[in-house]
Amino acid sequence: MHAAKSAGGMALQIDLGHGGNANNANVGSGIGRGGSSKKRLVMIIADPGRESTAAMEWALSHAVVEGDDILLLHVNMPLPSGAPAPAPSRTGSGGGGGSPIAVLLGGSGGAADGEFMETMRAACRARHPRARVHAERVEPATEGREAKAQTILAESQRRGVELLVIGHRRISSFLGLRSASGSSRGHDSTAEFLIEHSKCLCVSVQKKGQNAGFLLNTKTHKNFWLLA
């Protein structure tokens, strides 16, 4: 079983919400899934980019178990006036196709905007054929910098989500952006907002190269590395 480790090398077990406190995390080996067979709703944030691909690859390989339902949620955020449309990435973060899931999802990079969610849904069904997989687009529920995060938060609470998975986008620190508290804004504010405010367990995922594993963050555990 794969082990998640901190910068200090300590093995970590994260309770992913089957029959227990969703925010509980214990030292141990591997990623814990608990002993309960209680059905969960797992929400994966779907976007046409490599961060979302990495989040889905981790979720399907390490978090979703038989009996879970999967909801792919995309928030239709308007582009800033005059801003060019972002070019979707063809692979997971760090380059290279890697796992069969990443290869399948890699096809979404060349798909039109309206097609990437169908590709992601197909990946879910290929890995978990018995799971009920839903893909939905929603409009932002509010305006402002945190509109996407607040919309995801509201949808997760309304639907009774038990595990929320989002790709973590690393923002260049040279911009020198800082919050009112003085902390660096060189991180993904949407992922951090959801980790801090979600009532369910929220896991942000960043892929560290084709074979280097994943960097995971939760409310209680920061920068834990899941070996590939």
UniProtKB/TrEMBL annotation:
Domain UspA, chain residue ranges per copy: 42-200
Pfam families assigned: Usp
TM regions (residue ranges): none
Disordered, as annotated region: 83-102
PANTHER family with a match to the protein in the record: ADENINE NUCLEOTIDE ALPHA HYDROLASES-LIKE SUPERFAMILY PROTEIN (PTHR47867:SF1)
Stated name of the protein: UspA domain-containing protein
